[in-house]
Model the fold of this input.
Amino acid sequence: MAKVVMYSTAVCPYCQRAEMLLKQRGVSEIEKIRIDLDSAQRDQMIAKTGRRTVPQIFIGDRHVGGFDDLAALDREGGLMPLLAD
Done:
């Protein structure tokens, strides 16, 4: 299964929903990078994605986006093949 990295904060309902969806699709491990604990990580997230909101999700080397992007990818049937890489 592809590595999943998620930039998140402690109190982010969309982060929780993204984690729940990923776990429903068989992801057992998500590397969480807490940007609320480390401002350098926030800066790194913005530099990598061009976005300021969380979650920001990476599957393998691909930036998927936030929860809405992840859910849309799942609805279109693109999430499972991406996770399988």
Remarks:
- The CA atoms of residues 2 and 85 lie 5 Å apart.
- Strands lie at 4-8, 31-34, 56-59, 62-65.
- The radius of gyration is 12 Å.
- The chain is about 45% helix and 20% strand.
